[in-house]
Amino acid sequence: MLFTNALVFFAERGFAPASFRVEGGVFAEFLPPDTSEPGAIELGGARVIPGLIDLHTHGNSGADFSDGEDAPLRTMAAFLARNGVTGFAPTSMTLPYAQLKRAFTSARRLHEEAPEGLSRVLGIHMEGPFFSEKKRGAQNAAYLKEPDLDAFLELYEDCGGLIRIVDLAPELPGAAAFAREASKRCTVSAAHTDADYAQAAAFFDVGARHVTHLYNAMTPLHHREPGVIGAAAERDDVFAELICDGLHVHPSAVRLAFRLFPERICLISDALRCCGMPDGTYTLGGQAVTLSGGEARLSDGTLAGSAVTLYDCLRRAIAFGIPADTAIRAATLNPARQLGCADRFGSIAPGKAADFLVCDENLNIQDVCLGGESLDIKGT
């Protein structure tokens, strides 16, 4: 299938006029923008960007990954696809191992089946239970544990190696040994941590290469104690997630994050089951969460995850002053790199999956294509 007359976003050089052909669900070739043939899909100068990849999302539409069932995960994947997220890493909460195993098994089934019209499961993000009680945030303190490599490896094997990111607090006993071994299998991330600079630096020394929701649930950046943020920012191979919903991180701190981690920010939604739902009370890891006026909070007032999509976060990052090219890479290619699938997803290039969004000049989504097939979102 030939798509003609578009402004295509290429990771290396930004938007450029082009036509492109999709064969077998992948990008086959790129041609001059005025190329045409019978049956070609005319895009009329629309902007084409890679499908977004959300590497940290718990739920939406009343469903949560930690429910541990197939139906909620499919509900999540359908909502994400309609909202421009063509690949994702369903993200767990701090819960008993048995419940995590059920959730991870459901993710493996959906990953292997890869049904048409649903966002692709590109990996699992294991958030918890190896966290600091002091920085637990919205994680359930009843299920917190010290790092347990054997338990992690059992979960990893059970889901066929689909865990692509595992989180833990660097200061916990055994965290360094855990990170050294786990980093041989997936991306290891500093998260929900009270670590100081030295503890964080040692954690990155042994193989950790990621920071979960930068600024949130961690020691702050201070000129005499730079903490996790300082230790991560000075390393060119450490990436950082950023919740850009306008609530979790101030716009000025968003701009600072992109300066501290040039081309190493991964925009995330950290969305909860209340995303896409009306105001009301929902659950998160066995705790009540109230959504009111766009804010999701625990009963004690703690800000939980978000109620927005990754596409909302992308648009807001641009509104906060982040260049569009930089923001798009932060929601596409950078997450693909951290999930270990950038050879197939996250950018528009020959041989990569033809997962892309057709947008107007203001980046409003007009259509979503998975493997080159339109989801016809205007008809839904």
3D architecture notes:
- The chain is of the alpha/beta class.
- The protein has 2 domains: about 80 residues, Urease, subunit C, domain 1 (Roll); about 290 residues, TIM Barrel (Alpha-Beta Barrel), CATH 3.20.20.
- The protein is built from 10 helices and 22 strands.
- Strands 1, 2, 3, 4, 5, 20, 21 and 22 form an 8-stranded mixed sheet that branches. Strands 11-12-13-14-15-16 form a 6-stranded parallel sheet. The chain has a 3-stranded parallel sheet with strand order 6-9-10.
- Helix 5 links the parallel strand 13 and strand 14.
- The two termini are about 25 Å apart.
- The model has no long low-confidence stretch (mean pLDDT about 95).
The CATH class designation of the largest domain is: Alpha Beta
CATH topology of the largest domain: TIM Barrel
Termini Cα gap: 23 Å
Output the CATH homologous superfamily of the largest domain.
Answer: Metal-dependent hydrolases
Which spans of ≥5 residues are poorly predicted at pLDDT below 50? none
Beta-strand proportion: 25-35%
Which class of secondary structure composition applies to the elements?
alpha/beta
List keywords for this structure.
380 residues, alpha/beta, Urease, subunit C, domain 1, TIM Barrel, 8-stranded mixed beta sheet, 6-stranded parallel beta sheet, 10 helices, 22 strands, 26% helix, 26% strand
Helix and strand arrangement:
Layout: E1 2-10, E2 14-23, E3 26-31, E4 41-42, E5 47-50, E6 52-57, E7 59-60, E8 63-64, H1 70-82, E9 85-90, H2 97-113, E10 120-121, E11 124-126, H3 149-158, E12 163-168, H4 175-182, E13 187-190, H5 197-205, E14 210-211, H6 227-233, E15 239-243, H7 251-260, E16 265-268, E17 280-284, E18 287-292, E19 295-298, H8 310-319, H9 324-330, H10 333-338, E20 356-359, E21 365-370, E22 373-374
Parallel strand pairs: 1-4, 1-5, 6-9, 9-10, 11-12, 12-13, 13-14, 14-15, 15-16
Antiparallel strand pairs: 1-2, 2-3, 5-20, 7-8, 17-18, 18-19, 20-21, 21-22
